[in-house]
Amino acid sequence: MAAQNKVTLGLSSHRPEMIPLVSELMSKHDAIFLEEPSATGFDKMLSGNLAVREYLLPLDVEFAEFSQQMCDLLKTLKTEGKKIFQVEPFLEVLSDIHDFFADGHGPGEIEKDSIQYPVYLAEKRAAAALLTFYQAAAEGDFNETLRAVRRFARADAARFRLRDSLRSQELVRLVTEYPSAYIEAGEMHYPLFHLLLKGLPKTTRVKPIFTYQAALGESKGKGHIYGPGDQLTLLYIYHPAIDQPMRETILAARSLIHSKLVTKEELTHDLDLLPHLRNELHCNRLVSRLSLCDCRRLFSLIRRADTQTANRLVVDYLDDKDRTSH
Description:
Elements: E1 5-11, H1 19-26, E2 31-34, H2 42-47, H3 52-56, H4 64-79, E3 83-86, H5 89-102, H6 116-139, H7 142-174, E4 180-185, H8 191-199, E5 204-210, H9 211-219, H10 228-238, H11 245-261, H12 275-287, H13 292-302, H14 307-325
Parallel strand pairs: 1-4, 1-5, 2-3, 2-4
Helix pairs in contact: 5-6, 6-7, 7-8, 7-10, 7-11, 10-11, 11-12, 11-13
């Protein structure tokens, strides 16, 4: 009987509060496959021959504290004998495209039958749709902004499908070399689980784990982590041709309000209280109470408000709505 490989798909957010849970999971596996492109100095950093801060400096990381703590964790895991790899083909190809353009080449010079071409198109379409959304959110009316949200979510979903497809092909080739493998992935990459199931041998056991569920169990919270914008994107990932205007529209409308409520900056204090997770769940619960009409009214009130003011306005609005309904 063939030996069974164990593969864990760890779906988690890039927040410092998730590091202890991720650490526990990673430590149980022989190999770790990170959701990031190959970076200069990575092996030197892991071996301690390059300071973490020096390694991160040219990378322009989005979440500085998370990246610092993750590198520290990876260095420890390396000393324990874990094999650690960076595997994110889409982002690597995208980086190559940027270098290609920096060398003076143009989009028309990208070979149509190369992997660069679909990556370029997916990124271009998503970036254009995002720009259109930003313009609509700043100056457009409510209906125009909703259409822009839906267009971007569809383009983003197409980009996710390509990104997960490319990564799954690479991972299928690599993970079976080890008795057990941990694959790092953001929560939006749950479809990667199905791609791995399809591509890996039947002797390989693949298990998805949402780290936020483990955190919720410990904090006695409840709910799911996906905001309405993420729900809309996942809907389009799994059902590209879906045509359910009411369902799509309410998710888009709630996402407009949600984006103004959720905390953007990285929280680094009281991590044992799970500040990001609690904030996301709180915002999800607020917007789940909003109708399309509610979102329309609130949009004009909070579109230019800061996060704190937007939260106060939405809470006050819902309190007033509760009082008048009784």
